[in-house]
Specification:
This is histidine kinase. By secondary structure, the chain is an alpha+beta fold. The chain has nine helices and 15 strands. The strands form four sheets. It has a five-stranded antiparallel sheet with strand order 4-3-8-6-5. The chain has a five-stranded mixed sheet with strand order 10-12-13-15-14. Strand 1 and strand 2 form a beta hairpin.
């Protein structure tokens, strides 16, 4: 219909209809399947050749507004059931019109076609629509799958690398062949987590080995003493010291086990804290008196620099355990000809306790980091069976439990400083 409308031209008030039947054979007499009729001012302007086969027959023409159309059921001149579309329009101005007359010629166009042909067109449209929908669904599915797979590839790659991780091996991290801005923070945090767990696993292995080593020596001594006593039951030299030797070895094993249990309790927050106000000067003097049986020269070697009225709010048991272990280590490992200095300074927000002792050789950076590890000893051969490397590990765990901080650093003249900070 729109094509036929474009063929109507208004040449300065003269209407022309430029129709070529060879391009629209359905309107020819040889194949009269469709019909059209044009009206101008209620008079027939043009008919299709197919309609001229039926003289005196006009297509329906009803009064409708300009630029409107209406579709009605209509029985075609050849007797077939069909439909007619009536359209009211303004004829197009020809290109050679030089002046605008202000008058527009209106035309009425009626096109009639059999219902069967229209149904075929509708079927074709429906089939095309259905096929388009199906193709669109599969096309969208394909595109979405490709886009999602491409977007999730970094996550899938990360997941596969995580599956292949083994924290029992060292230097296991997740590497990236290409950087994705959204994935890199996750990868970095995972690498930190993996590194931490690898360190914990290695520490666990070392701790298990060290515990076995610490317990193996007294157990071997017990076995040896028992075998000798069984072999020579009547030897007075053996029987005279047998029970005391067994007791001494058992006491050593008890000390190891008690310290391990204390380390476990401190690390698992099983200790209930009871905060109370303590006079730090009197508290440290009491600890010094308690250690006198282990270090008889403690009064001569320990130099205190602390105010008499200095008060702190802490858990008494935790602070007692921390300071006892620190003083015991400083007196035991410090050079005997040098003094052990304990200095306390207090600010508005913290109290700092600094304990210094002289060493024969300054500690390396690696030793300073490992000094608080459980069962770590500077003497790797563990020749001293009275020291087990648990004291400073207990100190570190109790400091973490109480929100204290402790660090070790080298000072001048081969002196080691252990600096304990208590929040006020």
């Amino acid at each position: 219909a729109n094509y036929l409308k474009t063929l109507v031209k208004d040449h300065a008030g003269k209407l022309e209809f430029d129709f070529a039947g060879e391009f629209m054979s359905e309107y020819e007499q040889a194949n009269p399947s469709e019909f059209y009729q044009l009206w101008h001012e209620q008079h027939t302007f043009e008919k299709s050749d197919s309609l001229q086969l039926y003289p005196g027959v006009d297509l329906p023409n009803i009064d409708i507004a300009i630029n409107e159309f209406r579709i009605i059921d209509y029985s075609l001149p050849n007797g077939e059931a069909g439909r007619a579309m009536i359209s009211h329009f303004i004829a197009q101005q020809a290109d050679d019109n030089t002046a605008d007359s202000g008058h527009f010629n209106t035309m009425v166009l009626t096109i009639a076609a059999p219902t069967a042909a229209l149904n075929k067109v509708l079927i074709i449209i429906d089939v095309v629509f259905v096929l388009t929908c199906i193709i669109a669904v599969f096309g969208v599915r394909y595109l979405v799958t490709r886009i999602v797979n491409r977007g999730l590839y970094p996550l899938n790659n990360l997941n596969e690398q995580i599956k292949q991780l083994d924290i029992t091996e060292t230097a296991q991290i997740i590497n990236s062949d290409f950087k994705v801005e959204e994935i890199e923070p996750i990868r970095n945090e995972l690498n930190k987590f993996i590194t931490t767990n690898q360190q914990l696993y290695q520490n666990e292995k070392r701790l298990t080995s060290d515990i076995a080593h610490e317990l193996k020596t007294p157990i071997a001594e017990l076995i040896s003493l028992s075998e000798v006593a069984l072999r020579y039951p009547n030897d007075e030299r053996i029987s005279a010291t047998y029970t005391s030797d067994i007791l001494a070895i058992s006491q050593r094993m008890k000390t190891i086990v008690n310290n391990l249990l204390l380390l476990q309790r401190a690390g698992s927050s099983a200790i209930e804290l009871t905060i109370e106000k303590l006079n730090l000067s009197a508290f440290i003097n009491n600890i010094s008196n308690e250690l006198q049986f282990k270090h008889p020269d403690i009064e001569q070697r320990l130099q205190l620099d602390i105010a008499e009225d200095l008060l702190v709010n802490v858990d008494k048991f935790c602070l007692h355990t921390i300071l006892s272990n620190l003083l015991d280590n400083a007196l035991f490992y410090g050079e005997r000809q040098h003094s052990v200095n304990l200095q306390v300074t207090q600010a508005s927000d913290k109290t700092i306790i600094t304990l210094c002792n002289a060493l024969a050789t300054p500690l390396s950076g690696q030793q300073l980091e490992a000094i608080f590890d459980p069962l770590y000893q500077l003497d790797s051969s563990r020749t001293n069976n009275q020291r087990h490397g648990l004291g400073l590990a207990i100190v570190k765990s109790l400091c973490n439990l109480n929100n204290f901080t402790i660090r070790a650093e080298n000072k001048a003249d081969s002196r080691l400083a252990l600096i304990l900070t208590l929040p006020n």
